[in-house]
Design goal:
It is an enzyme of class 1 (oxidoreductase). It catalyses: D-glucose 6-phosphate + NADP(+) = 6-phospho-D-glucono-1,5-lactone + NADPH + H(+). Residues 289-584 form the Glucose-6-phosphate dehydrogenase C-terminal domain. One of its GO terms (molecular function) is NADP binding. Keywords: Carbohydrate metabolism, Glucose metabolism, NADP, Oxidoreductase. The chain is α/β, with parallel strands linked by helices. It folds into 3 domains: 17-88, no CATH class; 99-246, NAD(P)-binding Rossmann-like Domain (Rossmann fold); 284-516 and 532-587, 2-Layer Sandwich (Dihydrodipicolinate Reductase, domain 2). 32% of the residues lie in helices and 20% in strands. It is built from 17 helices and 21 strands. The strands form 4 sheets. Strands 20-19-18-17-11-16-15-12-21 form a 9-stranded mixed sheet, with helices on both faces. Strands 1, 2, 5, 6, 7, 8, 9 and 10 form an 8-stranded mixed sheet that branches. Strands 3-4 form a two-stranded antiparallel sheet. A hairpin with a 2-residue loop joins strand 13 and strand 14. The longest helix is centred in the middle third of the chain and has 26 residues, at 323-348. It is globular and about 75 Å long.
Length: 591
């Protein structure tokens, strides 16, 4: 039984089990369904959700997992009936001495690390800047490094930026935000140190209904210790406690299952928020909107019209000192098994019953379980080597001092995957991910089939039919946008065709700056919205797909194909695409 407790359970019995999970509240009470919002909603509308006072507890761990509990207790005679929204709101008011106010305490565990400094604190400030955080909130940094409150604020202030459309009060907002930030030094496995943290949190909460969110921005080998101490010594006694967990969620099926089992000794599944920040990116969120709210796309979203789908991720830099971490995981675990596979599941899923988190995640799991085992002959791996350009020498992967000289860890991988269901049978889903490539980008490319008996083939300038194929491109980053390649007549008296783009460039269409993915995911965790977080059965299905492949690569000591730093990757990737009658869309002249 989880040691996280809620206010009602503490009133009934100190040994009462956790309340039924919050998703059941949402499904049973129509007034709660406002928590599941259309994916196209903007951040200003999104912040309306922060005005609601939910009686829950959750903990956030590392890559973004959050755990949430409802406040309806379960007695020996059976579970209590689920309270109505009015009853729960009344409980909130009564528990605060008649004041309709609660407080949220956010603890960043591992506050001295790069992720906290570069992403988590700036995201929290952005939410505060936009008015998305509750009126009463406190942020605590927790780490082993010795630091004062003032030193934490100085460290955090160096990474904060303001929205481009509200710069006039930036300095004032920063000062107000930093006054809410505090620091506590402690070991991640020390009950005593978490008890001291709990005492400090209570001082700031001032007797209000307290909700607590823990973000575990720490190595996975200490997740369980931190969760154990937080759950037993620093969870909320009157509201919710949630935990966000960062990837990696294990290295394979076995280690992932072991981690999940250990976490569930102290947390319920609906308290764990496993974060994949790519699911919080604007264009990934827009994927379902594009498909399900536009009549022109949904009828085409099948094997009948789509020839292949490509998920492409590239970075123009290498490991740069992070080789020690990366060498333990490699590009397949680091990018393909989570980021790209999650996007694939969203892309290929059937229409969910609703936008509720469980309905969406149910459909994603069906896709993952329908996928054909990945064959080694459908995979190409590579590793970047040193090269010299313009008198500048760029280091190879094994030149990194933190990487073994004989490392076979791939920094590039391309794979062909297949979904064995009626909608996608025989359609190749190609993934490609790599470091130290020629550009930095992430995109989804949907290549449609050729027009049967095309009347204009002779007018399109040759016999290469791929040049005349319609293609939908969703550019996740940078320069977020969506464009559709169509064939068009070149103006003039003759009949000559050209391929043109119908282009939606976000920076040109929308004046507002696009929120960072961590902003959206942190706000969702605070609100208990799990739609963009990974459920344990999703994680199991993802590892079941990739574990046999990873095991085969490592057991056979497959040697990666070398490619120059700053190139387009191994030549083998082109042969893989050609094998499935596909041409990589990002390598075409008019990409």
């Amino acid at each position: 039984m989880s040691s996280f407790s809620t206010s009602l359970s503490s009133r009934t019995s100190s040994s009462s089990p956790f309340l039924s999970n919050h998703s059941s509240l949402i499904n049973s009470d129509p007034s709660r369904r406002s928590l599941s919002f259309p994916q196209g909603i903007n951040l200003d509308d999104l912040c309306v959700r922060s005005k609601r006072k939910l009686v829950q507890s959750s903990v956030a761990v590392g890559d973004g997992a959050v755990i949430t509990k409802s406040s309806s207790p379960e007695l020996k005679g059976g579970p209590l009936s689920i309270p109505s929204q009015e009853a729960e709101d009344k409980l909130v008011i009564e528990s605060n001495g008649g004041k309709e106010h609660s407080t949220v305490s956010i603890t960043v565990v591992g506050a001295s690390g790069d992720l906290a400094k570069k992403k988590i604190f700036p995201a929290l400030f952005a939410l505060y800047y936009e008015g998305c955080l509750p009126e009463h909130f406190t942020i605590y940094g927790y780490a082993r490094s010795k630091m004062t409150d003032a030193e934490l604020r100085d460290m955090v202030s160096k990474t904060l930026t303001c929205r481009i459309d509200k710069r006039e009060n930036c300095g004032e907002k920063m000062e107000e935000f930093l006054k809410r930030c505090f620091y506590h030094t402690g070991q991640y496995d020390s009950q005593e140190h978490f008890v001291a943290l709990d005492k400090k949190l209570k001082e700031h909460e001032g007797g209000r209904l307290s909700n607590r969110l823990f973000y575990l921005s720490i190595p996975p080998n200490i997740f369980v210790d931190a969760v154990k101490c937080a759950s037993s010594s620093a969870s909320s006694s009157s509201g919710w406690t949630r935990v966000i967990v960062e990837k990696p969620f294990g290295r394979d099926s076995k280690t992932s299952a072991a981690l999940t089992k250990s976490l569930k000794q102290y947390l319920e599944e609906d308290q764990i928020f496993r974060i994949d920040h790519y699911l919080g990116k604007e264009l990934v969120e827009n994927l379902s909107v594009l498909r399900f709210s536009n009549l022109i796309f949904e009828p085409l979203w099948s094997r009948q019209y789509i020839q292949n789908v490509q998920f492409i991720f590239s970075e123009d830099f290498g490991t740069e000192g992070r080789g020690g971490y990366f060498d333990h995981y490699g590009i397949i675990r680091d990018i393909m098994q989570n980021h790209l596979l999650q996007i694939l599941a969203l892309f290929a899923m059937e229409t969910p019953v609703s936008l509720d988190a469980e309905d969406i995640r149910n459909e994603k799991v069906k896709v993952l379980r329908s996928m054909r085992p990945i064959q080694l002959e459908d995979v190409v791996i590579g590793q970047y080597k040193s090269t010299t350009k313009g008198g500048v020498t760029y280091p190879g992967y094994t030149d990194d001092k933190t990487v073994p000289k004989d490392s076979l860890t791939p920094t590039f991988a391309a794979a062909a995957l297949f979904i064995d269901n009626a909608r996608w049978d025989s359609v190749p889903f190609l993934m490609k991910a790599g470091k130290a490539l020629h550009t930095r980008s992430a995109e989804i490319r949907v290549q449609f089939r050729h027009v049967p008996g095309n009347l204009y083939n002779r007018n399109s300038g040759g016999t290469n039919l791929d040049r005349t194929t319609n293609e939908l491109v969703i550019r996740v980053q940078p320069d977020e946008g969506i464009y559709l390649k169509i064939n068009n007549k070149v103006p003039g008296l003759g009949m000559r065709l050209d391929q043109s783009h119908l282009n939606l460039l976000y920076s040109a269409r929308y004046s507002k700056e696009i929120p960072d993915a961590y902003e959206r995911l942190l706000l969702d965790a605070i609100e208990g919205e799990r739609r963009l977080f990974i459920r344990s059965d999703e994680l199991d299905a993802a590892w079941a797909l990739f574990t046999p492949l990873l095991k085969e690569i490592e057991e056979k000591k497959t040697i990666p194909e070398f490619y120059p730093h700053g190139s387009r990757g191994p030549v083998g990737a082109h042969y893989l695409a050609a094998k499935h009658n596909v041409q990589w869309g990002d390598l075409s002249l008019d990409q």
